[in-house]
Amino acid sequence: MDSNKKLGLIGKNISYSFSKKYFEDKFQKLMLKDYSYNIFDLNEIDEVEDIFSAPELLGFNVTIPYKEKIIDYLDELSDEAKNIGAVNCVLIENGKKTGYNTDAFGFEKTLLLHKKPHHDSAIILGNGGAAKAVKYVLNKHGIPSVTVSRSTEINYDNLNAAFVQNHKLIIQCTPVGTFPNVEDCLNFPFEGLSKDHLIIDLIYNPNYTKFIINASEKGAKTVNGYYMLEQQAEKAWEIWNFQKK
């Protein structure tokens, strides 16, 4: 029998991670005594070199702020990861490091569960790795979208209520409002929201961000990032284990 098989998560300031508990529960449920899941908190992306040299490493998840930076350290990308330009799952097989994007899979499952026909144009808040996966999925489903970030033409300072009114699907992809900074909220014209709006906030901790609370007060339907997170984790598990006969 193989010795300990290692999985993990790389990111920065990630002690609050969902993934460790999720996968440790899974190991227990499947009675996999030889698996472990570690948190690799990196100050700089180049520290990933040390992790690659760990024996028995099957792969790892990637979170903020390294979903784009990790690409330079990999040998190959899946088609989706290549198109998106961001990686959140890495498989290591015979020394070869392949990057995948399971955020797209998780977001697509969430979107299709809640989307109504009138959610036919979107505003994406943020332009990091998660936002790129969201844009990829929206494009795939023929939903036009506008990205709003600090540096875009339409930004947090000039986004207005009328513009929000005309886009019934809003996806919040920034880390603003994540635990422990639960009182933080993006500058957003909530008065443009209505009961016809669907708000998906990719944050899962807390369950209800300030953004979600403010949106639901305007009658909008709100969804957090928990289901997406579960789904992308399941997809990652499939990728890590599919290879082993």
Structure description:
This protein has about 240 residues and is of the alpha/beta class. It has 2 domains: about 5-100, Leucine Dehydrogenase, chain A, domain 1 (Rossmann fold, 3-Layer(aba) Sandwich), CATH 3.40.50; about 105-230, Rossmann fold (3-Layer(aba) Sandwich). It has 8 helices and 11 strands. The protein has helices spanning about 20-30, 50, 80-85, 105-115, 130-140, 160-165, 210-215, 225-240; strands spanning about 5-10, 35-40, 60, 75, 90-95, 95-100, 120-125, 145-150, 170, 200, 220-225. It has a 6-stranded mixed sheet. It has a 5-stranded parallel sheet with strand order 8-7-9-10-11, with helices on both faces. A hairpin with a 2-residue loop joins strand 5 (about 90-95) and strand 6. The longest helix has 17 residues, at about 225-240.
Task: Write the SSE topology.
Blueprint: E1 5-11, H1 18-29, E2 35-41, H2 48-52, E3 59-62, E4 76-77, H3 79-84, E5 89-93, E6 96-100, H4 103-114, E7 122-125, H5 129-140, E8 145-148, H6 161-165, E9 169-172, E10 198-201, H7 210-216, E11 221-223, H8 226-242
Parallel strand pairs: 1-2, 1-3, 4-6, 7-8, 7-9, 9-10, 10-11
Antiparallel strand pairs: 3-5, 5-6
